[in-house]
Every structure is written in C-alpha cells, then in structure tokens.
Amino acid sequence: MDSIRRHPHQESFVSGIIRNNPLFVMVLGTCPALAITTSLEAALGMGLLFLFVLVGSNVLISLLREIIPDEIKTPSYIVIIATFVTIVKMFCNAYLPALYNSLGVFLSLLVVNCIVLGRAEAFASENGVFDSFLDGLGNGLGYTLALGLIALLREILGTGYLTFGEIFAFLPYMRLPILKALDGSYDYSMSLFTSPMGGFVVFGLLMALLQTKNLRKKDAARAAAIAEAQLTAQEGA
Amino acid sequence: MSQLGYVFLAVGILLLLLIVFFVTFVLYRKAPAPKGCEKLPSAENCAKCALGEGCAMNLYGQKEDPKK
Amino acid sequence: MTAYGYFVAFLLAVITDLLVDNVLLSRFYGICSFIGVGNQVKSAVSMGVAVTLVIVAASALCWPIYYFVLVPAGLPFLDTLVYILVIACLVQAVGLFIKKKSPALYKSLGIYLPLITTNCAVLGVVQSNTDAGILAGQSLAENFGLSMANAIGTSLGYLLMIFVFACIRERLATYPVPRAFKGIPIALITAALMALAVIGLAGLGA
Questions:
Q1: Interface touch C81/A207, C-beta < 8 Å
Q2: Cα C168 to Cα B23: distance, rounded to the nearest angstrom
Q3: What pLDDT is attached to residue C7?
Q4: A51: pLDDT confidence band, cut at 50, 70 and 90?
Q5: pLDDT in tens, B48-68
Q6: Rounded Cα gap, residues A127 and A144, in angstroms
Q7: What would the DSSP string read from start to end of A99-127?
Q8: Taking CB atoms and an 8 Å limit, are A72 and B18 in contact across chains?
Q9: Neighbour-count burial for A75-92, b at 16+ CB within 10 Å, e otherwise
Q10: Which pLDDT value is given to residue C123?
Q11: Which residues of A44-188 form beta strands (DSSP E)?
Q12: DSSP state of A67
C-alpha cells in the first residue's frame, strides 16, 4: 500500500508505532495496560518511563552484542534490563514521587515486561546502535500511545473528568469535566470503567475493533484475489 | 556485623546468584530433552514471548493455519 | 495472639488473596500468560501448578534476603535485581531437575518453565511482599507469615482463575462467536465477566 521506500533507519522507528504496535498488534506488555490505565496522567508517566528503559536497554545491549557469548544471551539481557529498571525506579522515587506511588509494583515489573526483553532479543542483539535506539523509541512511543488511548477512554467514561497535575506536579491542577461538557445535564460517570472489569472491557473492545479492521482488509484482499483468478480463468478459456 | 559486613554479604549473594543463574541456564539449555520430548515446539520462542505457530501458548493465536 | 489466632489470621489472608484481591482479575499481575495459556485446560493447570511452586519458593527465599541482608547493608534498592535473579535461578534449577528426572513432567510443564521467569505474577508478588515494609506494631515474624500467606493465596488464586478461564475458553471455541471477537477479544470479555464476579466479594475479610 505504501510505495514510499523508507530508509531502513526510519523503518524500525515507524513500524513500532502503529503497524507493529507492541500492545495492540503483538499483544505484549498487557499487565500495565490494564492496571495503570485508570488515570491518563499515570499511563503517560508509565509510558515515558517504559520508553526510557526500552531505549536504554536496547542501546546498551546493542553496544555489547559482539561481546556477550551466544549461550548466555538471555540471562545477560535480563541482568542489564534489571539494572536499568533499578536506575529508573530510583530516579522516579526521587524526582516524581507521586508517579512512583501510583505505579507501585508495576515499575519493578518493567523488568519482566515482554516488550523490553522481546525487542532486546529480536532486534537489539543483531542490529546497530542507532537502529536499536530508533526501534526502542518507536516501540516506546507506540506503547505510550496505546496506554494513553486506553487510559483516556477509561478515565473519561469512568470518572467524567480528565485530571491533570496530580502526578506531574509541574502541571497546574486541572479537572476537565468532559462528560458534563458533552451531555451537559448533570454530573455523572460510569464507574464500571475504572474498575478492573472496565479495563478488560475497554481493551477487549479495542482489540475487537482492530480485528474488524484486519478482517475487512483480509476479505477485500481475498475478494480481489478471487476476482483476479476468475478473470485469468476467463481469459485462458 | 557491621554495615560494611552486610554490604559484602549482599554483594557476595548477588555474585553467587549471578553465577548460579548463568550456570544453570547453560546447563538447562545443553541438557538433552528426555526421550519422546524432542519434537516439542520451540521453547525458546515461547520464552521470548515471540509465540508462533505450533506453540501451545499461542498468544495472538489466530494466525492462518499454514496448511490452508 | 494465641496460636489459634495466628492460624485464623493466616487462613484469612490466604483466602483474601485467593478470591477478593485476586492476583489476575483484581491486581492484574499475570495477564500475559493468562491470555496466552488459557486455551486448553491441561496446559493451563500445568502452568498454574508450576507458577504456584515458583511463587512460594521464591517468596520464602527472597523475604529473608531482603530483611536480613539487603536492609542491614543499606542497599534496599537492589531488591528488584536480587529477586529476578532468585526467580530465574529457581526456574532454571527446577527445569534442570525435571528434565533429568521426570520426562512425564517435562512433557506437560517443559515449555512453560522458561516463561515463568518473565511471568509478571511471580515478580509482582515477591516484590509487593517487601514493598509495603513493616507496618506499625508488626513483628518481623508476623510480616513473614503475612508474606507467605500472600504468596500461597495469590498463587492458588492464579491457579483457580486460569483453570476456570481455560474451561470457559475451551467451550467458547465451539460456540459461534462473531468474527471480530474470535480469539483474544472474546477472551478479554470473558475475563471481564470473571472480574465482575470477583468484585462482588470486595470487602470480605481483611
């Protein structure tokens, strides 16, 4: 569909954002996607920290890829990623304590996040530093966008407001009444969406939406192939 | 024990764990699969969460059947 | 508290973690494997049992290391690194043991063992046991007892929920699910309904 020939550097960056989105297409890293997304600010904060961990570990692993022997690849990557996550935890605890408190255990769980380990093994272990950096950036952005989307839906529908300034202290505290603005009668919300069930429902429906789009594309492709086969059969006959 | 003693103990435990991890990891990989289990789907792929066809843990499992 | 009182408190903590604050449906720790394995009942139960063993063993090992080595050394920030190493060592050691001694077990559990290292539930439970710190007026032994109750309860809760999930999904595979929902979306909706059931138990117990 896109006849634009992308430079290989750009390819690894762009594909991580939408086409191979780590959360919606590859279905990796789903734990934070359901737990952190009750608040848009927390989700974006998590995405930012995730981006840092992913980029850092990708770059470091790519730098060391010649030195680490093949047999102990996976354990070394786990150790490197754990080190990065520890650094990020301490940084977050010091400078963004509100984010640290709201993320809780899930910040430590970045160590076993499938995306970080997966990108390290699949990409950074075989490609150059700059490519790995871009790949990490792209996947991190994609994951942040995906988290942000789920959090946006859950927070707006679940609380009726978009709250800023609670976690990122440098932002002014704002409570934007979204639902009230759209349906101005009174203050209401559907607290289902901030409950655990809501997380599953929002994620499931978004995946269904994505699957519909894929199915439509596949059906169109199959119809086109059938039509073409009939055409060549007619021409041959 | 003084705090420095505990620090040494902590670092010692960390190094011990690292060594045990690397050693057991390599041993596990090199150990031959028991008879009758050679053709199990690639455990490596499953471990990387890069689950593909043939894996019992097929995450995004609705890939097209390769036989079709 | 008497011994009986401790026993009841322990049991209550186990049941709370099993049902009320269920690790999968309420705390969202093991979702990756939950969606992935919950296709067939046999593999789901194997995974659940393996995870149970690893969580309990890892908690029993990591709690003492944290409170008796890392904290006195003034290095509490090394906990994540130490925990993941302990878990990984346990998993590899258990895998080695199974590979050499029990081909039958290897056949059912073998593929999942490397996956348990990256299972969010294991690291999540072990980390959350020590993240809370010692509460006011709680002795070290009580904290350890609570941590072990937490470990046992959450792992049994994982086993229970993954078993139920797999049973439902096995049946679902034969039902006429709309095309857009086939596979992961309907699995997530199923999980949503299970989560709804668990919400009803909120407030029960500690």
A1: no
A2: 40
A3: 87
A4: very high
A5: 444 444 444 443 333 333 333
A6: 23
A7: HHHHHTHHHHGGGG-HHHHHHIIIIITTS
A8: no
A9: bbbbbbbbbbbbebbeeb
A10: 92
A11: 161-164, 174-177
A12: T
Question: What is the C-alpha to C-alpha distance for residues C111 and C101, in angstroms, rounded to an integer?
Answer: 16
ipTM, 2 decimals?
0.86
Of C42, C50, C18, the residue nearest C169 (C-alpha):
C42
Contacts of A196 in chain C (CB under 8 A): 25-26, 28, 195, 198-199
Q: Do A197 and C195 touch (CB under 8 A)?
A: yes
The answer to whether the CB of C16 falls within 8 A of the CB of C205 is: yes
- Measured between beta carbons, which residues in chain B are less than 8 angstroms from residue A68? none
Cα→Cα distances A158→A38, A183, C26, Å? 8, 15, 17
CB A155 within 8 A of CB A39: yes
Q: Does C173 touch chain B (CB under 8 A)?
A: no
- What predicted TM-score, i.e. pTM, was given to this entire model? 0.85
Residue C32 token pair: 């990756």
For the cut 70, the answer to whether the pLDDT of residue C6 exceeds it is yes
Contact criterion met (CB below 8 Å) for C51 and C76: no
Cβ atoms C3, C132 nearer than 8 A: no
Query: Average pLDDT over chain A, rounded to whole?
Result: 85
Burial class (CB in 10 A: 0-12, 13-18, 19+), A234: exposed
Tell me if C185 and A89 make a contact (CB, 8 A cut-off).
Answer: no
Residue A72 DSSP symbol: G
Contact (CB, 8 A) for C86 and C62: yes
3-class state of residue A176 by DSSP: strand
